């Protein structure tokens, strides 16, 4: 009798590992080919699993996509460690921390940003459920950036004539678009200088005072 719970636990662990393998393959394939061009057969081949076994874990491709969106969102949250509503710490310092973590994460996992950018473009006018899921995830980053920009404006660190929400959307959209563009021109355009250019352009539009550079860190 004692072996039955242990066997169930082993099966659950194996199922969890298999599920994660499926999600990992889905993230990479969706980022490379897009959702519409990727089939369940492509995914089953990528993870060397029978289609029936794949459908047991995820009955539809949309179920798999939504799970992949959630998994990737959780990974990004752990990596970014988004700040809360910290009124004591200077906004520029908080903004710089986000820039540094973003630089490191996207340098290591550019497919994360490409995944969201590709799916957002595909789903915006074709799949309301997927589009809403992506909007919900990205909205957290927009809200965090908007709050930091408003805090910086209140403290005199950032310009007063900048629309905080528009600036937050512009920054996030610029980063996602930059990743897709760099992926297209990857043979001739490197990630680091392109990231730096995007951040410097946005920085110049935000900063009230001189001496603030949110992209010099993490250049090693």
From TrEMBL:
Keywords, alphabetical: DNA-binding, Transcription, Transcription regulation
Domain HTH tetR-type, chain residue ranges per copy: 16-76
Presence of keyword Transcription regulation: yes
Xref: InterPro entries: Homeodomain-like_sf (IPR009057), HTH_TetR (IPR001647), Tet_transcr_reg_TetR-rel_C_sf (IPR036271), TetR_C (IPR011075)
DNA-binding region(s) from the entry: 39-58
Any GO MF annotation of the entry: DNA binding
Name of the protein described by the UniProt record: HTH tetR-type domain-containing protein
Domain of life where this protein originates: Bacteria
């Amino acid at each position: 009798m004692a072996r039955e719970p242990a066997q169930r636990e082993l099966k659950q662990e194996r199922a969890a590992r298999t599920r994660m393998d499926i999600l990992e393959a889905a993230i990479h394939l969706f980022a490379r080919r897009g959702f519409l061009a990727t089939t369940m057969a492509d995914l089953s081949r990528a993870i060397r699993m029978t289609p029936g076994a794949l459908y047991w874990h995820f009955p539809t491709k949309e179920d798999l996509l939504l799970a992949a969106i959630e998994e990737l969102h959780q990974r990004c949250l752990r990596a970014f460690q988004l700040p809360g509503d910290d009124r004591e710490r200077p906004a520029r310092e908080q903004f710089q921390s986000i820039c540094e973590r973003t630089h490191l994460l996207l340098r290591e996992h550019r497919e994360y940003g490409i995944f969201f950018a590709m799916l957002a473009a595909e789903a915006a006018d074709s799949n309301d459920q997927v589009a809403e899921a992506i909007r919900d995830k990205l909205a957290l980053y927009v809200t965090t950036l908007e709050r930091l920009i408003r805090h910086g404006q209140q403290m005199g660190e950032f310009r007063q004539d900048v629309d905080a929400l528009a600036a937050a959307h512009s920054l996030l959209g610029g980063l996602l678009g930059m990743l897709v563009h760099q992926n297209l021109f990857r043979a001739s355009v490197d990630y680091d200088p392109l990231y730096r250019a995007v951040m410097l352009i946005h920085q110049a539009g935000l900063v009230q005072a001189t001496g603030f550079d949110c992209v010099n860190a993490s250049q090693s």
